[in-house]
């Protein structure tokens, strides 16, 4: 009987000890699992904190470009600037007694071309620039070669409206507002082998708006001219080169 009681006591003791160890092990496993989850969440938060979205900060100049219209270039300081809807256009005047084709060749040597005039404002601005040059050189009257040519469909006077008779050649100027012709122009004069007046120039007077030598023409207005004419009518000539900013 004593042996049976001892056996039962020993069995109960083993059962209690086993239960205690299992309870402690569960707590350790629970702590380990919780700690692992917290470590994992910490790593995810850390990565998220250091992850950048979008582009890096700019340099204060609006990203690309140089602060001038998002990458737009400015004309050199010694060139006039015409701001147009289709883009900026640079124009510079030069003195040179030569025919129209020679003037165009001079412009191309500067990677430019004889310019057109898109608006009346541009036409008047060019006229005043021409007057400044005339006063500096004591000229009385002069004209400026422009990049315009008579349309083949308008070979004689009054076949087309004045503003529809010529077109601009520089591949940048648009519209016909800049064709500020003098009264009665373009009159499509003709001269032997030279044919019809197919080029255009702008009259410039050193003072006032008119000149007795050129009745009916106002300072800054346009006139059609023989492309081959290089030394007279008037004898002082200039040419206006135009190009995109560079």
Quaternary state of the chains:
single chain
Order of helices and strands, N to C? HEEHEHEEEEEEE
Query: What shape does the CA trace take?
Result: globular
Q: Report the biggest beta sheet as strand number plus sense, adding barrel if it closes.
A: 8 strands, mixed
User: Measured on Cα atoms, how large is the radius of gyration?
Assistant: 43 Å
CATH top level of the domain at 80-243 is: Alpha Beta
Number-wise, the strands total 10
CATH topology of the domain at 80-243: Mannose-Binding Protein A, Chain A
List the SSEs and their pairings.
Blueprint lengths: L1 H48 L30 E5 L2 E9 L4 H9 L4 E2 L5 H18 L3 E10 L15 E3 L21 E2 L3 E2 L2 E7 L16 E4 L11 E7 L3
Parallel strand pairs: 4-10
Antiparallel strand pairs: 1-2, 2-10, 3-10, 4-5, 4-8, 6-7, 8-9
Q: Could you describe the 3D structure shown?
A:
This protein has 246 residues and is an alpha+beta fold. The chain has three helices and ten strands. The chain has helices at residues 2-49, 100-108, 120-137; strands at 80-84, 87-95, 113-114, 141-150, 166-168, 190-191, 195-196, 199-205, 222-225, 237-243. A hairpin with a 3-residue loop joins strand 6 and strand 7. It starts with a helix and ends with a strand. The relative contact order is 0.16. InterPro entries: C-type_lectin-like (IPR001304), C-type_lectin-like/link_sf (IPR016186), CTDL_fold (IPR016187). Residues 57-71 have a biased composition (Gly residues).
């Amino acid at each position: 009987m004593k042996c049976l009681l001892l056996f039962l006591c020993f069995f109960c003791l083993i059962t209690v000890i086993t239960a205690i160890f299992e309870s402690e092990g569960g707590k350790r496993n629970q702590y380990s699992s919780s700690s692992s989850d917290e470590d994992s969440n910490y790593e995810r938060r850390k990565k998220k904190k250091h992850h950048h979205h979008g582009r890096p900060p700019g340099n204060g100049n609006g990203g690309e470009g140089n602060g001038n219209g998002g990458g737009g270039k400015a004309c050199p300081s010694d060139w006039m600037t015409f701001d147009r809807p289709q883009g900026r256009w640079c124009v510079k005047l030069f003195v040179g007694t030569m025919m129209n084709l020679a003037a165009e060749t001079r412009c191309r040597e500067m990677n430019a071309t004889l310019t057109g005039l898109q608006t009346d404002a541009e036409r008047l601005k060019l006229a005043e620039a021409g007057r400044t040059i005339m006063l500096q050189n004591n000229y009385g009257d002069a004209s400026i070669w422009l990049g315009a040519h008579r349309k083949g469909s308008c070979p004689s006077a009054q076949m087309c409206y004045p503003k529809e008779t010529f077109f601009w050649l520089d591949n940048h100027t648009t519209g016909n507002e800049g064709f500020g012709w003098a009264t009665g122009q373009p009159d499509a004069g003709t001269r032997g082998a030279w044919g019809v007046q197919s080029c255009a120039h702008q009259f410039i007077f050193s003072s006032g708006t008119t000149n007795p030598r050129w009745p009916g023409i106002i300072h800054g207005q346009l006139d059609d001219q023989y492309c081959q004419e290089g030394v007279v009518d008037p004898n002082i000539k200039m040419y206006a080169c135009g190009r995109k900013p560079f």
